[in-house]
Amino acid sequence: MLPLSLYIHIPWCLKKCPYCDFNSHAIKDQLPETHYIDSLLADLAQDIERYDITRPLHSIFIGGGTPSLFSPDALNRLLRGIEAQLRFVDNIEITLEANPSTFEYQKFAEFKTIGINRLSIGVQTFDDNLLTELGRVHSGKEAIAAAEMARQVGFDNFNLDLMFGLPKSTVTHSEHDIRTAIALQPTHLSFYQLTLEPNTYFHRYPPVLPSDELIFKTQQHCQQILAENGYAQYEVSAYSLTGKQCRHNLNYWQFGDYLGIGAGAHGKLSLTLPQNIIRTQKNKHPECYAQPNDFIENEIELSELPLEFLMNQLRLKQGFTLAYYQIATGLDATTLEPALSDCVKTGLLEKCENIYRCTDHGWNFLDNVLQKFVP
What we know:
α1 (about 35-50) packs parallel to α2 (about 70-85) and α6 (about 170-185) runs parallel beside α8 (about 210-230). The chain contains 15 helices and 17 strands. The protein has helices at about 35-50, 70-85, 105-115, 130-135, 140-150, 170-185, 200-205, 210-230, 245-255, 285-290, 305-315, 320-330, 340-345, 360-365, 365-370, and strands spanning about 5-10, 10-15, 25, 55-65, 90-100, 120-125, 160-165, 190-195, 230-235, 240, 255-260, 265-270, 275-280, 295-300, 320, 350, 355-360.
């Protein structure tokens, strides 16, 4: 069986950022911690019964929103309630997304005590002017203090999120961000380009962004700095020290299975192969989600498995084998042809022993690669 992960969505933030297309809502009143935790545990119980889930959990990712707004007591009740329903593997990875403005020493020390063993800190940039452009509520100094505090309370595994291609930014801005982040000694860095997503304020009122040439130059320059400092790129926007890849996200990209609970959360489950691989989506609005009824808003069976598999797997530098493709999809390797051979002939993919992966050219034009597998 494929490994099983659990994604938990907590949708509240201090403020909705203008670039954010995630299901997040600015806090208006007091956080409904007790009621929402009750709903999450009921949601999980319904999924377990509905899909006859017996596999143990290999990873948990608590995202948002800003889940670090919740109290340690609330998250402890959540984790113990999950553990009562599904077994945890011995070395389970449990990640909490955190905003720098929510860091308090005692609070994060308690997060560590209850079993959270990895943080993902949403820095975006250390430049105060650029943070203002992005509508963030923290400062560069707060971001540095948050990373330092993470280490002080015992988190030896944490990620820093950074963005490039920001309004009014230059190569120098991004280099400063990368070097500042490296000095804080995270085990993992997410470094990704700002995109203007639909249904965001930035999409409706687009800011002036750097040219494509400057963005590409920034990316290449900073990737070189990361490599020189031991942060290997293993996915389109993910860089880590040796052995510190995010196991939860790796499971996504390797077409593994995951449950999704919480308002708007997505899941993917392989019930039987290849006929019954499904994606689930939970009710999106927190008030609708928390009603005592069916939490599922949408459930669809995946029909374009070769494309679905490659959209995830080709994001990874390591590539894939045909044997793993058969394990993950239940399909014969011939279902990737003739597009697979064509990509090799045209230099978009390369085959090294039994592994297929993107060439440098294919990596930069991944959309062109995937287009070849569209039915």
